[in-house]
Amino acid sequence: MKVLVVGSGGREHALVWKIAQSSKVKKVYCVPGNAGIAREAECADIKADDIWGLAQFAKEKKVDVTVVGPEAPLVSGIVDRFQREGLKVFGPKKQAAALEGSKAFSKMMMKSAGVPSGRFKIVSELSSAKDYVESVGAPIVVKASGLAAGKGVVVCQTVEEAHRAIDMIMKERVFGAAGDSVVIEEKLSGEEASILAFMDGHTIYALESTQDHKAIFDGDKGPNTGGMGAYCPAPVVTERMMRQIERDVFVPIAHATNRDGCPYRGILYAGVMMTEEGPKVLEFNVRFGDPETQPIMMRLKTDIMEPIMATIDETLSDVSLEWDPRAAVCVVMAAGGYPGDYAKGKEITGIEEAEALGDVKVFHAGTAM
Ligand code: AMP
Asked: 96: which of 63, 84, 104, 369 lies 20 to 30 Å off by Cα?
């Protein structure tokens, strides 16, 4: 089997690394990939959002199945396009991918399906957004509805901060059209966890729990990043809580997406806050998490192509995943200054020494030779 992975981050490196170990796979491509991925897969210079270019590539190379890493191509309908062209692809179709592409859609879906999450209001006018904030008070969370590369959420301690966030999103349009409407949401407190599950429209298969760490410095200090690391499993998610999340989050979403004619097939990622009233959903992502995928792949013993193909073929009920009982942790090393402006092009050394430690794998994100 020939497999194409779309993306260029640490998540895609982990997927490529795991997919290449499959006995069913004889060739892995990754576009655009990065320097680390290029050691394990053939890379090509096509952008992850160039859906037409990706489809041409998949046909030219006679790719049997494509695995999409990032959300942007899923939200713009890569799966619908590939399927129309007769190409096998792993991920949800455009309508279901709106669970991540539109926070407004996602909140409405949660409400109609009865999924526990924070109280909210969707507004598309600046003055009504500010009026609503005035009426409910702070703390409060302001979210650009559309895709904003993980930066569209502002947790506000005061009403003034919330007004500033609304101005930034709706007036200055820092996130462009993603700020056409905003979701204003009750601030939840508790510990967060990421729960990922394979879904094929019939069966839900949850993976081991993970927790990621967003603040740049140790001790949860400093600005939020795209993720400084993650570990698996997350002890905050007990066996009982896991069953509760399956029952109260994944089952109703599977049902509601089926009911609405957009059966969910792919990985669904629920960002969950463990509140005193039980788990509540902060967000859905429609793909593997980054960096959660890295420790998940380190622990997964089963051939990853099994659940991927079973999800596409709707035979997930036949699959059983086996896990290494040991915990795994992913630590992100970033250039000084990140997530603000930072120097690019710095040399990275010591990779061979790190990997020689055994049970250690270095995944690359955005590197070049
Ligand atoms: P999201 O992209 O919606 O997951 O938001 C990114 C981060 O913002 C989450 O991982 C939380 O840390 C925080 N966040 C989002 N929504 C809320 C909320 N309702 N209450 C508290 N924190 C939130």
From this structure: 63
Q: Which structure tokens are listed for 25? A: 């796979």
Residue given tokens 């989050």 in the structure block: 249
Provide the greatest CA pair distance for the chain: 60
Main-chain phi, psi angles of 206, to 5 degrees: -75, 140
Residue 156 in contact with ligand 1 by CB distance below 6 A:
no
Q: Could you read off the pLDDT of 54-81 as tens digits, one per residue?
A: 999 999 999 999 999 999 999 999 999 9
Residue type, position 70, single letter: P
Q: What pLDDT digit, counting tens, does each position of 119-172 carry?
A: 999 999 999 999 999 999 999 999 999 998 878 899 999 999 999 999 999 999
Q: Tell me how far the alpha carbon of residue 158 lies from the centroid of ligand 1, in angstroms.
A: 16
Phi first, then psi: give them for residue 133, nearest 5 degrees: -60, -45
Interatomic CA distance for residues 74 and 52, integer angstroms: 13
Within 10 A of 76 (CB to CB), how many other CB atoms are there?
16
Host H or E run for residue 89 = strand 89-90
Alpha carbon 346 to chain centroid, angstroms: 28
Distance 44 CA to ligand 1 centre (A): 35
Length of the chain: 369
User: Cis (ω within 30 of 0) for the bond into 233?
Assistant: yes
Token pair for 327: 């915990």
Tokens found for residue 180: 């056409």
Taking 3-state DSSP, the helix, strand and coil percentages for the chain, each rounded to the nearest 5, stand at: 35, 25, 40
What predicted TM-score, i.e. pTM, was given to this entire model?
Answer: 0.96
The dihedral over CA atoms of 49, 147, 329, 365, expressed in degrees to the nearest 10, equals 40
